[in-house]
Amino acid sequence: MRARSIHRGAATTAVRRNGASVASMSEADATGAPTVARDVGSTTPLDTGPPAAHPSISVETVHALLASQMPHLATHPIGERFDGWDMAMYRLGDALAVRLPRVETAVESLARETRWTAALSPGWSFAYPHVIQTGAPGEGYPWPWAVVTWVPGTTADASPLGAAAGAPVGRAIAEIHGPADAGAGSSHGYARPLVERAWFNPEQSLALTERTAEVMWALGRVEAGDGGPDGARVDPAAARAMWERALDAPSPADQVWSHADLHGSNLLSDQGDFAGIIDWGKIARGDRAVDLAFLYTALPRAGVGAAVAAYREATGVDDAGLDARLLGIALHKCLVWATLDRPLNVAMAWRGLRELGVSAPA
Q: 351 and 230 in contact (C-beta within 8 Å)?
């Protein structure tokens, strides 16, 4: 059985300022995405661990749901449970899994990944969970749920990808990154024209300028802290210079469909080779740099470089600011994660800071 982090897909960081995660989304930036008004006077991370799951979630409930709604699957043995931030998942035989929102706020995530992976995936060549069938509330469980295919592999948070995995990961991201504007899709191999704009992810659809307060807050915390697991220390001057270069870089000319949570907990590894992408509940529109930036949590620097090169070759994109922006977004992600009280995320954070070249050993 593959090794996996118990908190699969749990790594997304929410940040609240003066009691509000997002104050408003009323204005728009140059690409048409709403900008987020934020109070920078107080910054407190909320990512202290996944919220408690609904108490009805159990092997017995899963068996009852299958027996009443999908009897053709009820004879499959129910296996190991995995808990992420949003979802609980049980193995179902060798090839399937049952996926259940752990909390009410995750119901929308399940609906989003069910709808958009089906709409966007024609033409995808990499492994990802296919939604086989959806279920209704019942047997004491209050929300919709789904049966999905099980993608073999080990999450790359615990088993990082090798540099040679970079190129296939970059090509996979190129396949995901179709145009996110209304009506796009007919020229990108999608099953049907997409007549609605992609979701605005309040964490990852942001313009770079909306991330500055968080970056500076996290940098201060990391600089004042005890260093990384191996005693590494962040170089604040190098980090600030990297962030300034990101802010000075040309903005993206367009927005694309983005996985928007493509860190090491959602990338699968097969002995260092790329094995697939999981957990699609955050899929949204955004800067193409976001997915590429998150690769620093799972790949060495050479692997990220190979991914970006393969991505550019596959897409033909002309984006002069891409490299600087993705470094800035990677810095943001890693600095915030380095402040968490979650060892696996902290390990990914310091791995990324090292590969970004903004940390040094003790």
A: no
